[in-house]
Structures are given as structure tokens and as C-alpha cells.
Amino acid sequence: MALFNFRRDTTPATSGNRAEMEAFLQGFSMEVMPRTAEKVEDFRALLPKGTRVYIAHIEGTPIEEMVATAKRINAEGFPVMPHFPARIIKDKATLADWIARYQGEADVKQALLLGGGVATPAGDFDSSMQLIETGLFDGFDRLHVAGHPEGNKDIDKDGGDRIVMQALKWKQDFANRTDAKMAIATQFCFDAGPVIDWVNKINAEGVKIPVHIGVAGPAKLQTLIKFAIACGVGPSLKVLQKRAMDVTKLLLPYEPNEFIADLAAHKAANPDFGIESVHFFPLGGIKTNAQWATDNGGASGVPANQA
């Protein structure tokens, strides 16, 4: 039986590439769930001080677990941003209760508002715009919304982007007429080309809300492909499928070096490019992702312009 000598590529990056990566990773954020956060003894041992931590609210997770996770992470010194998925929230009273719990018990001042990946709404809400219109988030410091660089067929069923673009323009109008600090946190992708095209397109359409690009952290290739298919990742899924066909790479963990390096280079060459930050989905584990980010220069915490 032939044995393959698998090893990680340790070729050092050039100083230029390293500087671009460090600048691009400044102020990265991390997404956790209550069950994944439980596996981390102390986030202070993993993340730079001030790193924003999103807390994903999966359907069926009790609000008590969400609030307890937010309280714990906030107490360790990290600004927390829980998800508010519109389609799992029954009504305005439920939303008000959640917000009161987060604010009263965990000092939450930031929120990610999204439709949520549920086919049938549980109650009165179907979109993040409806959540905003309740006025219940008016006292929050930051409101982030979801973005899909490769499309969202749950919304635009024809594969286009007409409805999504209308929603982004509505959110831009809201940002213009209020003092809300907003950003678009996107689904994870694997190919810089479609991301660059999407950011340029929404900017050309008048949507200037800063983009926090979703990035899948280091993980087994099979794990990433499973999550990518489940989450509806589009054209850039081909990057993983091509890698899976190469037996010399099949057993190696995927790392987002090339994806981030390409975006970092584009940002360095085009300072006004609309990506402001990187948002990690630690699909291969929080510790693994945090170590990768730190090793590649992301040890700076949240910049002042994102506070």
C-alpha cells in the first residue's frame, strides 16, 4: 500500500502579503452557539481583548441558554451580538421579552437581525425589516443585518437578487435617517471573485453599509462541504469540490489563507472597497479558528470605528 506524506504548506508569506493580511484581519469577529461556547473554558485565553462575539440562535434553543451564554461571554470582557432570527420569534411581546433579558442580564447593546433559515414563520415576523420597524432596537449601539454574496434562493427563488437588493436599499435608507451603526454580516464563501463582484454591485446600487465578510475557519474538507451545501453556498462551493478531487489535499484541513489573502490584496489596492471586517464561522472548532486568526495577524481586537 502506498503511503502519502501529507504535510502543511509552511512557505512563509511575503512581508507585503503579511501586512495586508494583518490589516484585513484587524477587528475580526467570531460566531458561537451556546453548545460550542460551553467547550471553551475561558474566551480570554483564545481571543484578542474586545473581539466581538456573535451568538447564533438556532431554532429550538431556549432563550435562557442564549442569555446565559451572552452573560458569561460579556463578563469575560467581550462585546456580544446575539442573533434575532425573525421567523422563530412569535410576536412583539416575545421580542420585547428577549431584548429585556439580554439587556438586563447580559448588558447586550448589539444585535444581528436576520430572517432566519426557517421555511414557515412561527408568528408575526418574516424579515429583519419587520424587527427593525418595531422600534424595540432603538437603544442599541449597533445593528447588523445578513448578507448573501452568492444569492439567497429562500428569498429570490428565481436565483436573482431583486428582492434582496430592495431589502438592502431599505436598510440603507434606515441607516441614513437614524444614528444606527450598521454592517452587513455575510454568509461564508470560499472564492474572492464573486465576493468582490457582489460588494462592488451593492455599492453601485447605493448600498454603502460596511460589509463584514463571512469566512469559514479551518476545518476538515468534508465538514465544510456538508455545511456549505446545507447553508446554500453558491458558486464558490466549486473551490471545495475541486480541492476534494486532489488526493494530496483531501486529508488536509482547509484553511482560508488564499481566500483572505485575495480579499486583503484587493482591499489594499482599493482602500474604499466596501469590506470593513472579517467574521469567522468556526466550523472546525473555536480554538482552532482563534489560533489560526492569531497566527495570521488577527490579534488586534475591535477597531475604534467598530466599537
From TrEMBL:
The organism's place on the tree of life at top rank: Bacteria
Matches recorded under InterPro entries: FAD-linked_oxidoreductase-like (IPR029041)
One GO MF term: oxidoreductase activity
Swiss-Prot/TrEMBL keywords: Oxidoreductase
Name of the molecule in the record: Methylenetetrahydrofolate reductase
Organism, scientific name: Gemmobacter lanyuensis
